[in-house]
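[Q] Does anyone have a clean structure-token version of this?
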Amino acid sequence: MKKDLVSVLMVNYNHADTIEQSIRSVLEQTYSKLQLIIVDDGSTDNSVEIINSIEDPRIEVYEEKENKQICAVTNIGMKKVRGEYFARIDSDDLWEKNKLELQVEYLNEHPEHKICFTHVSIIDENDQVVDSELEKLYAVDYERQEEWLETFFFLGNCLPMTSVLMTTKIMVEIGDFNIAYRQLHDFDYWIRIAKKYPMAVIPKKLARIRRYESETNNSNISEKNTTRTYNEYVDIRRHFFDEMSDEVLKKTFGKYFKNGNAESREELECEKAFLLCSPLGQGKAISNVGIEYFVNLFQNKMMTDILDKNYGLNAKKFYELTGEHLYNDWKLQEKIQIIKEKNKKFEKTIEDKESRIKVLEEELRLRNKIIEDYENSTSWKLTKPLRKIGTIVKK
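[A] Here you go.
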């Protein structure tokens, strides 16, 4: 039986410590009909020497003299693809030996799917599997298109680049990665695919993704990367409904519509604005993206009338929304949340102390009552002379 060629793209920047291991994990796949495209993004370490030391006719090496960043070199590598299938791996991640074989087999058996992913394990710098919330995030297995789009819109990315295998036809149709995005370039790509095609997941851990504590890796958790991720997420959400058909929009988000009977183009535009106002990720504040969408709608007299008549949203009520804090930076929000948590603890401490004071006051009242009762007793009064004599004797 004829085997299709799988083109694997690996981009690299200064991963001399891991790249050989990553290359070996591709070359040692049980599915051996491969084209391994390696694009070096102007590395300043000895990555290229290590790559060139590995002799295998399936390897094609392309060197960039200057560092162009991950999206640009990925797009360069995609132009070199010759196979019927396309896969992507980073130069510090690893594949299990049967990853490609299982994925090619799956896509052949399920022609309705043109792209599939797998579950993954998270490893550290020492190749040790670590317990990570990221692994749980990636452990998804949705079947329906609307489930993917709903998750992408309300929660964010849940698919790792290293686990993907897709037909080259889809890759060509969807086009290049958006070089405006560094942290979420893959997330943007999955959304563009999900608007048109169903996606599948093989629920087996067939890839190992490396995560670092230091700032040498694009996926590390640093304030700058987290800020960039937030900013890119906001922009991706701004364009979420671009090129989405009305049918897919209603099928995916109809249950969230303000007007469950919305059908016309104008009504659906209103529904998009309300959806875009929903909080970003796990936040609670109104999204500024939705407010901006409403601002554009209010420029149109027909849209203004529909918003007022069908949704009860006039200019006065809209001003209430724009009175909210819409443009807070995530870091500022985080600090505010920390202060709120500290205030809660402080208030709880005060409350506990006030309760303790009340208990002590009640205890004091009872003791004073006992003393008062005792002093007013007959025995206390009869022994008063004896107590005086005792005081004199003591002196």
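[Q] Thanks! Anything notable?
[A] The domain at 6-217 is CATH 3.90.550.10 (Spore Coat Polysaccharide Biosynthesis Protein SpsA; Chain A).
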